[in-house]
Amino acid sequence: MLSSWDNRRDFIIADDPIAFAAEHWVHTALRAVQQRGKFAVALSGGSTPKQIYERLAEKHRDDVPWDKVCLFWSDERAVPPDHAESNYKMAMEHGFGKLPVPASQIHRMKAEGNLDRAAADYEQLIRRELGSHLFDLVMLGVGEDGHTASLFPNNPVLEEVTKLVAPTMLPETKPHRLTLTFPCINQSRLAVVYALGQNKTAIVPMALNAAIKSPFPASRVGTDERKSLWVLDKESSRLLNKTK
């Protein structure tokens, strides 16, 4: 059952979170297509999105008008598209390469060149393709340090207020990356944070209970006008009642 955490965030503790996430993805896509003729999604890397993509390809191939789907990415490492650590490669190999999304509507985040130029080019692409509406869905995770997308603790990009895309170049995050910024994430129609498993048990209550500008970047996802959704399971939500 969907519950409200506060005025910026909803959450759900799902018995089968991958099935819920895939069905929610499909529902969000259908609503966007009905309302404005297309569905623009920013995909994430990570093990949970990988499972969601696999389920979409295996269980929901006939449930989505894939010719109306526009794929973008929420972050990417500075590696070629065929690199083992590429979020693009993962998403295509584990789901979207098996689905009939037109190639012209697959917008890879090209992070292997000059990162400042690549960030500006990707922002221009987003604005040209999506206008002020931005994304119908931004897929996000949360790391054990509280990062989301490639927005890491203590990174100056956390304070970005105008740009939609920016490089992250802290030494500890090599290879360097491109990421959507909070102005992009929080102006999009919906951001979903997927946080599953026992390795997220500690960070989930810390991030949800923290102030907006806390040491945990994931705390900043969601606004009064555009609430975010946190998808949790029994393990990741195990400590929530002890802190709220």
List descriptors:
single chain, alpha/beta, Rossmann fold, three-stranded antiparallel β-sheet
Q: What is the fold's blueprint, element by element?
A:
Elements: E1 3-4, E2 9-13, H1 17-36, E3 39-43, H2 47-59, E4 69-73, E5 75-77, H3 87-93, H4 115-130, E6 137-141, E7 165-168, E8 177-180, H5 182-187, E9 191-195, H6 203-209, E10 228-232, H7 240-243
Parallel strand pairs: 2-10, 3-4, 3-6, 6-9, 9-10
Antiparallel strand pairs: 1-2, 5-8, 7-8
Helix pairs in contact: 1-2
Structure description:
- The structure is a single chain.
- This protein is α/β, with parallel strands linked by helices and 244 residues long.
- The chain has one domain: Rossmann fold.
- Helix content is 30%, strand content 18%.
- It has helices spanning 17-36, 47-59, 87-93, 115-130, 182-187, 203-209, 240-243, and strands at residues 3-4, 9-13, 39-43, 69-73, 75-77, 137-141, 165-168, 177-180, 191-195, 228-232.
- The strands form two sheets. The chain has a seven-stranded mixed sheet with strand order 1-2-10-9-6-3-4.
- Helix 1 crosses helix 2.
- The longest helix has 20 residues, at 17-36.
